[in-house]
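Q: A reviewer asked whether we had any structural model of the full assembly, not just the individual parts. We don't, so I'm hoping you can provide one. Inputs are below.
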Amino acid sequence: MIDLVHVTKSYARVSHPGQRVLALDDVSLTIEKGELVSLVGPSGAGKSTLVRLLIAEERPDSGKLLVAERDISRLAPRELPYYRRKVGVVFQDFKLLPRKTVAENIAFALEVSDASPADIRERVPRMLTLVGLADKGANYPNELSGGEKQRLAIARAMVHSPRILIADEPTGNLDPGTTTEIVELLERINRSGTTIILATHNKDVVDRLRRRVIAVEHGRVVSDRQIGRYELPSHHAAVGAEGLGS
Amino acid sequence: MSLRSLGRVLRFGLMNVLRNGWFSIASIIVITITLFIIGVFAIQSFVIVGTTQGIQDKLDLSVYFNDDVPEEDILAIRTAVANRPDVKSVDYISKERAFEIWQERRTSERVKSLVTPEDNPLPRSLVIHAYDPGKLGTLAKLFERDQYQEQVRRVSYRDNQSVIESLVATARSVRQSGWILAAIFFFLSFVLIYNMTRVIILSRAHEIEIMRLVGSTTTFVRAPYLVEAAVIGFVGALLALGAVYLFLRYDLASATPLLSIAKFLAPDMLEFFWSNLVTITIVTLLLGIGSTVFMSSVAVRRFVKF
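A: Here is a predicted structure for the entire assembly that you could use as a starting point for your response.
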């Protein structure tokens, strides 16, 4: 499903013109269809860079990034929107439109993708039901709790029925109870066949899932276990650093 | 783009205009002022050019000959002058024709009776029209040469020289200053619209980011800004047309030192405005919509990245 082949990515250092900082260093990994993979590592490890590469926000300096056997680093700008409809993404800060209602936030994603009105009428309530917000369609985001906001973000990410859902610190702003809710929702979505990549700092979430865990440090994959726990070989201090931005 | 997408893009664009109340109003004011100034200067320029063109067409050079010069000599000179590339036409006015003109132009019978076909002191002449009335002076100088001293009685150009030259110069400078001012205002409005679009885009970075993440096509992200710009240009153009009308109708030029020339031309300008209303409206709307859409698209291309 997803293949990273010797992917390297660096950024220019703003403070030192001419110098570059390495975010991903020769990373190779494979994620199969239907997997739920936790991507763990301390701040600056390269998790967010990996997420940005997967949603085609960035292009690697070198290496191949294959999604469904297609090298997405070579997509033409006009192909990007169609690719992004196949890859749902949710963030720690939800990224909701505050002046649109819950239902409108989901409908907006369909409207700008040229969906028909009939399609919008059918899909919006289905998505709201999926995430348990069927009775909140007319509310505005500021009337929702943190967990509800994240569920709305997930509903929007799932509206195009993507094959992959990428969650970048989805529980970073949530309390433990709500975190459990969101993780259960992600597991449910994964059971329906969607591949999920969960970039997180949250040890409890990773340990509870008992699924594949890929640990990243200094831009390299330092461990990859099929049934893993939140463990970083060289950076034990990161254990328990929940709540920090990645 | 499908009809459905077009409808949505139009709806998003119109919603943007309403949502950015103050931005939209400020942009409309800038466009209105720009088009108003361009409009007043363009109309003024057309009226002045039209007036001076009319006068210039009437400007000519009359060369009067002594009565003892043989007609063949005059006709030879006429042919020589007519062959010059800067000369539009040369008419020979015989004594008989000069008498007819005298009779046509005089109203007083007493003055008319001063000249009769039998006793006709009116000289024969060549009436020369140049392509560029500014060149009449050069042509007049030709007849001041020694070779013509015996033949030429008088050259009429000298009488009108200062009027002709100042008229030509005024027409030229009004046209130039009008275009320079229009260019300055276009540049100013470009800077303003460009920056306003930039600020609007930056203020909506969050929304644009979401649009990209949910798989919106470039059209949906960019086109509403162009619709918004077109609406601003359209409203600005209509307001500018109204402002130009009011300006001419109530002779507000009197209160504007910069437009002192417009002051005495206001009635002609108002007439020009009415008789060319359709053309003026179309040109103003095209200019308004075209310029705002262009300015906005430059900013959108630069600041909305995919």
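A: Points you may want to mention in the reply: The domain at 59-165 of chain B is CATH 3.30.70.3040 (Alpha-Beta Plaits). The mean pLDDT of chain B is 82.
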